Amino acid sequence: MTLQGCSMFRRFLEDRRGNFAIATAVSIVPILGALALAVDFSEMSRQRSLALNALDAAGIAAARFYVAGGTAADTEAYAKDFFKANMNGIDTSSAEFNLTLPSSETGGGLLTIDASYTFEPFFFGSFASLLSVDETALEISAETQVRLKNTLEVALVLDNSGSMDYTGSGSGKKRIDLLKTAAKQLVETLAGQAAQIKQVEKPVQFSLVPFAASVNVGPTNASAAWMDTEGRSPVHHENFDWSTMPSNKQVTLSGGIYYKVGSGWGDAAGEKVTRFSLLNDMQRVTGQTWNSDWQYVCTRYRSNGNCRSYSWVDYGSYSYTYGSYASWQGCVEVRPHPYNLNDTAPSTSTPATLFVPMFAPDETDQYSSGNAPNSYWSDLTSSSSNSTRQKYMPKYFEPNDTSAAGSGSGPNESCTTKPITALTDVTTVTGKATMTTAIDAMSPLGATNVPEGIAWGWRTLSSAAPFSEGRAETEKGNDKVVIVLTDGANTYYTPSSLGYSDAAGNKSIYSAYGYAGVNQSGQSKSRIFMGTTASSSSYTNSNYTAAMTEHMSTLCTNAKAQGITVMTVALDLSSSKTDELGQISAMKACASDSKFRKGSDGNAAKLFWNTTGGELEQTFKEIADELSNLRFVG
């Protein structure tokens, strides 16, 4: 209070000119006290608001620090420094500051910070006793909580096509080896961060989907309920002409299922006919044994017909042993449209949703027009029509004297990748070892089918079949992420582009979409063209690429609409090549927007990386940072 103010106050007290002076003197103290307190209250309110904001900022910063692997002590010190730095010079050295991390004891996944300190007033001390105000009211306290998003499910959808065997740009190492190193480091980083969080079961899970021309779901799933084990799908028999069977060994459709009908089947009559049963019926000769049958017979005759001499003659015959020619290696075909572009759960009530095992037909033996891409069985027909020879079904039920089919050959042509690894908790020693072993087992061979890789990545994250290890889509605090990497454009090939004949008119090699020249049952297009704007009568590699890229775009849109975060990586793709430039653009469009980073245009940055072999490890570190940021919400 100024000297002038004190002088006025003294004159009021000494004034004896009536009751008004006395009343004024009595009331001036509480009036001035209230004004002083109003000033202090205003400042106190400002500081309380500042403290709340500073504490909120400290909570988010501490959460980022913690999920990145910070210890409990370091996280508390980091949060305290962050709080102090945001208090705009206000002395908080005496403040009580407490940070509580989530643990198995506290549970709940909450990172909690509370801080309190005593406000230093300007006037309160002079008037507190006169106004009977409790000094504890000067304490400023604040609390903030950050709920950690402790669960993360990541599908690694990784290109295993033949070009991944090339040397990565700027590295001196093969792309596949660079990818293995980067992917394992990503798993290691996220597993290490998750180890800090104790109260949630399976905090970080990874799945692995190696893809090339097709995706391998694993031969152990041959009898799974989501597989087309009865041959009901509209594409299951599209390459088979059962009318070619003889009259005593018919294959007849009844109730949506094909059965063996006729005396020629013997004990097998009445059995269902599927791609699985066809593989079992294809037998090869594995050995032969001569069974002697010695008989004493006439070997020379007289003119009158009587026997002149006798001899022992062996009228024996060979008996054969048979073995399996090929078993299903685990690859499946693309589902009919629109089920190839979504996560609809398989159901026998809707046969098109079931997954059909790949079965590459035996193609014609005739060479007049050049070799067929995949001839592995005797045609057993004299027909001059190559299409008829390819679809002639009796051949599969006659044993062949041949070697067993190798991996990715015969009926398993275009099945070149290792099986999917379902979601696995990498915070356990066993789980992390399972994932790193699966990554190391990847081997490059075959074409590139990115849309089918994305589709299966999505399916591994789903809570529904075929892979149902994912948490419920409605569960809060869980993120589902697909990371897809490719080093090339989508590819599907005409036989001539690979140096083969197309005498049977297939228009393409056989792969996950079947033959491009064979329309889906009841449809006017083949599967590769359905759901696209690509011409269904243009059978060229470039048109196949365009159709598959459209499928990829639709899949990405559908997955993101269902809450899937999509991260994409283009590896060693060149913008100077038309097809690769198109893939770069498509991969960028496929990616989700970052929740944390801004692009150069000020908008959310795309979760897309256009990288080289030499930069791949750094790219995956940036992906790890992005995933770390997903581990919490304010």
Characterization of this structure:
Helix content is 30%, strand content 20%. By secondary structure, the protein is α+β, with helices and mostly antiparallel strands. The strands form seven sheets. The chain has a six-stranded mixed sheet with strand order 14-5-4-15-16-19, with helices on both faces. Strands 1-2-3-20 form a four-stranded antiparallel sheet, covered by helices on one side. The chain has a two-stranded antiparallel ribbon with strand order 6-13.
Strand order of the largest sheet: 14-5-4-15-16-19
CATH topology-level name of the largest domain: Rossmann fold
**Rounded average pLDDT:** 89
Amino- and carboxy-terminal Cα gap? 46 Å
* CATH architectural type of the largest domain: 3-Layer(aba) Sandwich
Structural class: alpha+beta
- Count of alpha and pi helical runs: 12
DSSP helix fraction: 25-40%
CATH superfamily of the largest domain: von Willebrand factor, type A domain
**Count of domains:** 3
- Which spans have pLDDT < 50 for at least 5 consecutive residues? 1-10, 104-108
**Broad shape:** elongated
CATH class of the largest domain: Alpha Beta
The biggest beta sheet is recorded as:
6 strands, mixed
Give Rg in angstroms. 38 Å
Proportion of β residues?
15-25%
Highlighted features:
634 residues; alpha+beta; six-stranded mixed beta sheet; 20 strands; disordered N terminus
In brief:
With 634 residues, this protein is of the alpha+beta class. It is built from twelve helices and 20 strands.
